[in-house]
Amino acid sequence: MSGYPLPIRALIGELSRFPGIGEKTAARLAAHVLQSSTADMVRLAESILEVKEKIKICSTCFNLAERDQCDVCLDPSRDRSVICVVEDTETLVAVEESGGFAGTYHVLHGVLSPADGIGPEQLRLGDLARRVAAEGVGEVFVATSPSVQGETTALLIKRILEDTPVLVTRIALGVPLGGSLKYVDKMTMAKAIEFRRGV
Ligand SMILES: [Zn+2]
Fold first, then answer.
1. Quick one: average pLDDT of 49-65?
2. How far is the CA of 114 from the centre of ligand 1 (A)?
3. CA of residue 109 to ligand 1 center, whole Å
4. Hey, is 140 helix, strand or coil?
5. Residue 144 Cα, ligand 1 centroid: separation in angstroms?
6. What is the Å distance from ligand 1's center to 95 Cα?
7. Where are the domains of the chain?
8. Which of 45, 85, 152, 179 ranks highest by number of CB atoms within 10 Å?
9. 47 or 123: which leads in pLDDT
10. d(Cα 11, Cα 135) in Å, to the nearest integer?
11. 104 C-alpha to center of ligand 1: Å?
12. What would the mean pLDDT of 164-188 be, rounded to a whole number?
């Protein structure tokens, strides 16, 4: 990349820090930036800044939000007796798009991984237990991916909620073992929600 002027090299360096973007792809994106109009690239820069300035974490479910609470928590038509636990906001979007779930969420922002220092506290499982106790929740539906870490996380949630009357359910494994839920198509997701079972 040393053949490029310094500002281009700097841009390639920044772009290659995105997940899944290698140096070659970054160089292609940088060429696109160069060819685009200044107005288009100002819009791109502004939308990145807007996301950084305006997006917060929902104080109830830890979903992304523009206010103190997210759109799902603010929606009075959502069923507050069921909480769906997801690993990340991408999985939340996949569940929403399936149209198969009308309750609320709890976003873990990860899965249990003691080796990486991710324990119950990082996943805000204490907050989940408090919500279950305070909001009269009848079911906690764990929609973590069918990976070893996703399963371990589901079992931990079951253990934490053991002394409460809440029913803990797990997404049905119509989805491939070891796969990631966020990439599941709408139909499969809707079925996996419909056929959820007790842990
Ligand atoms: Zn929320």
1. 96
2. 26
3. 13
4. strand
5. 18
6. 14
7. 6-54, 75-198
8. 85
9. 47
10. 48
11. 7
12. 79
The rounded Å distance from CA 12 to ligand 1 centre is 36
> Residue 58: pLDDT above 90?
yes
Contact status, residue 69 vs residue 60, Cβ threshold 8 Å = yes
Residue 117 Cα to ligand 1 midpoint, Å, equals 25
Tell me, which fold does domain 75-198 have in CATH? Dna Topoisomerase Vi A Subunit; Chain: A, domain 2 (3.40.1360)
Cα(69) to ligand 1 centroid in Å equals 5
- C-alpha 116 to ligand 1 mean position (Å): 26
Predicted local confidence at residue 175, as pLDDT: 53
Distance CA 70, CA 122 (A): 20
Ligand 1 centroid from CA 25, angstroms:
35
- Averaged pLDDT for residues 34-43: 97
Q: Rounded mean pLDDT of 41-49?
A: 97
Q: How many angstroms does the Cα of residue 96 sit away from the middle of ligand 1? A: 13
Write the CATH number of the domain with boundaries 6-54. 1.10.8.420
Q: How confident is the model at residue 53 (pLDDT cuts 50, 70, 90)?
A: very high
Residues whose CB falls within 8 Å of the CB of residue 42, separated by 6 or more in sequence, listed in order? none
Residue that is written with structure tokens 């709408």 in the block: 186
Instruction: State the burial class of residue 85 (Cβ atoms within 10 Å of its Cβ: 0-12, 13-18, 19+).
Output: buried
Average pLDDT over residues 21-42: 96
Whether pLDDT at 174 is above 70? no
